[in-house]
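User: Please fill in residues for this 638-position structure.
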């Protein structure tokens, strides 16, 4: 048995007895390994008759601390067992001594366990505390309160992943509460070695190695370099966007929006799947599939809501290429519902154990990427960071991706991302960065800007430049592939053309004249409608009615047509301005990153590369004729 003194708030000091006992046998299964059991008890008048408080296994420790009933007790070792743990709150080990030292602005040591704290106090002479639960638990508020005001806090971590995470969590949690935080580890090569092993090996306090602060910008640079090794993007903005999206998968519990990553191309062999395969090695908890049913998808997403997986859907064009099938529509609604943490989720009827059915809501929030030829439906694109890919030119070279070997060093970068970002989940929760965008585009880029601002360096500027350029390109592509948008733009050109000929602004166009102008271009998407007759007056009226535009008679009452004034509001709301179309930029944003509050991060020369977006425009000559009852917002399909 191992005996350790533990302070309990508002209670007499207790002791914790830690020992092992054989696990209980489960019928039909082999006996498990020995369980570590913790026995909390209070010393009575006689040591051999302690006042038992509670006993629990390591698995149920957290539940017991919260006040739930203990599991079935061990054989009675004294005065019996209490029924619960109300009013029992474990406190920081040696916390009172730390409060006194911190009040005087002294220096304090923090270790992962009581054994480490005792060894540090013995060999350094400084007040040393330990957090209950060690590095495997969240940083308790009591620990922060104990060291608040200290001039210097030294955190001694174990030589393992848990220790590295514990040190980074404390570094963040103590920010602003103490003068300075230094994280130290032993130079011993043995994994899991702690400060007690360090001193037992004959080393001194001066032999500890300082763990440097994590440079987030440097880690993002590594991710970007890894992407460039295997993939040739058509724009540096796409590299930045994919890098930030991958990083954001590691902080999903802190995010309010989970932007979709849409990777698409005009043909096969454009590197689309390669983006997903590399992302699988860098993202948090990746789940990649090429064919999934709606039920399997929403159940899998709901099962991991505490820390969502990163879902990667390849060959998405096979799902959406056959029109609005029932499966495609369900997958589309699932993808859309998972974008917003506050969405209603997916509700289904589930069988009850006792018979009958009950409704159950599945939470489908989480980061998701889709990949395929051409773009997915517009509702998915509106929630996506769109990365268009193109086939590699003969003179462009990349390193072949060998998953057997490359996953090793890519996994090291993924571990660096996790070590940097995972401890920051609590700090980044509810963060709303300054954005150069508005409305839905701002929601899409919010999570990526959070990562960029946390990294610092050039990343806030790069992220905002990418957001502006890529959003403009995406808006332009959607406008050029939507029948309603194309019709509004064509009507605007018709009014301007007639006005240019007459030399005066044209305020009214007869329906017949407007139809002649609209049907004149040979590449107009409605050129083959009505068996080659083009757009009719009745069809024109139906398409424009969705925008609140209706035909009227002229002042003399002799002709039916359209007033220019009825188009003005729709043009302003739905169409990009000439400057935006020519330059590829959105309305001038005025946002800055926290590090440079007075500097705008919207470069004046941000533009959309024409070759990068030209292929995205679906061939409007192949646009099918809409049904008679179609609405004005129907999107053209290839």
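Assistant: Residues filled in for all 638 positions:
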């Amino acid at each position: 048995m191992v005996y350790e003194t533990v302070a309990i708030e508002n209670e007499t000091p207790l002791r914790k007895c830690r020992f092992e006992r054989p696990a209980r046998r489960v019928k039909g299964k082999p006996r498990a390994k020995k369980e570590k059991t913790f026995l909390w008890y209070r010393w009575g008048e006689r040591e051999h008759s302690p006042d038992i408080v509670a006993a629990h296994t390591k698995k149920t420790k957290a539940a017991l601390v919260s006040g739930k009933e203990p599991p079935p007790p061990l054989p009675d070792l004294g005065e019996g067992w209490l029924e619960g743990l109300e009013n029992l709150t474990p406190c920081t080990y040696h916390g009172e001594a730390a409060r006194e030292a911190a009040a005087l602005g002294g220096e304090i040591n923090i270790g992962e366990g009581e054994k480490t704290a005792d060894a540090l106090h013995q060999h350094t002479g400084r007040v040393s505390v330990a957090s209950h639960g060690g590095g495997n638990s969240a940083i308790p508020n009591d620990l922060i309160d104990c060291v608040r005001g200290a001039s210097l806090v030294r955190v001694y971590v174990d030589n393992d992943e848990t220790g590295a995470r514990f040190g980074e969590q404390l570094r963040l949690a103590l920010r602003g509460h103490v003068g300075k935080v230094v994280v130290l580890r032993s130079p011993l090569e043995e994994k899991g070695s702690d400060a007690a092993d360090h001193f037992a090996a004959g080393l001194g306090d001066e032999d500890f190695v300082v763990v440097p602060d994590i440079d987030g910008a440097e880690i993002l640079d590594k991710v970007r370099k890894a992407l460039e090794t295997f993939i040739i993007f058509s724009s540096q903005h796409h590299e930045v966007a994919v890098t930030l999206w991958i990083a954001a998968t590691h902080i999903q519990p802190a995010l309010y929006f989970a932007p979709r990553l849409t990777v698409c191309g005009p043909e096969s062999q454009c590197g689309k799947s390669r983006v997903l395969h590399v992302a699988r090695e860098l993202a948090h908890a990746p789940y990649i599939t090429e064919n999934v049913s709606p039920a399997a998808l929403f159940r899998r997403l709901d099962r991991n809501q505490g820390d969502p997986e990163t879902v990667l859907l390849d060959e998405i064009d096979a799902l959406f290429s056959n029109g609005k099938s029932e499966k495609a529509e369900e997958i589309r609604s699932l993808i859309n519902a998972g974008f917003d943490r506050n969405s209603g989720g997916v509700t289904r009827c589930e069988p009850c154990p006792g018979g009958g059915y009950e409704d159950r809501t599945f939470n489908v929030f989480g980061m998701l990427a889709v990949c395929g030829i051409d773009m997915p439906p517009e509702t998915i694109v509106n929630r996506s960071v769109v990365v268009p890919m193109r086939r590699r030119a003969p003179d462009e070279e990349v390193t072949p991706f060998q998953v057997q070997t490359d996953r090793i060093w890519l996994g090291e970068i993924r571990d660096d991302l996790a070590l940097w970002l995972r401890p920051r989940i609590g700090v980044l929760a509810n963060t709303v960065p300054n954005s150069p965008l508005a409305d839905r585009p701002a929601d899409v880029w919010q999570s990526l800007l959070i990562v960029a601002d946390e990294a610092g360096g050039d990343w806030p500027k790069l992220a905002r430049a990418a957001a502006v350029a890529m959003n403009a390109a995406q808006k332009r592509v959607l406008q050029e592939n939507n029948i309603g948008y194309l019709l509004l733009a064509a009507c605007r050109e018709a009014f301007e053309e007639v006005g240019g000929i007459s030399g005066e602004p044209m305020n009214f166009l007869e329906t017949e004249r407007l139809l002649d102008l609209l049907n004149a271009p040979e590449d107009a998407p409605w050129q083959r409608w009505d068996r080659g007759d083009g757009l009719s007056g009745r069809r024109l009226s139906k398409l424009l009615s969705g925008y609140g535009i209706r035909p009227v008679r002229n002042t003399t009452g002799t002709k039916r047509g359209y007033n220019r004034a009825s188009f003005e509001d729709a043009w302003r709301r739905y169409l990009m301005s000439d400057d935006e179309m020519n330059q590829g930029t959105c309305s001038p944003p005025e946002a800055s990153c926290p590090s440079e509050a007075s500097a705008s991060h919207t470069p004046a020369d941000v533009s959309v590369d024409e070759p990068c977006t030209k292929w995205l425009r679906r061939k409007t000559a192949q646009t099918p004729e809409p049904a008679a009852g179609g609405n004005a917002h129907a999107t053209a399909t290839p």
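For context: The CA atoms of residues 354 and 616 lie 54 Å apart.
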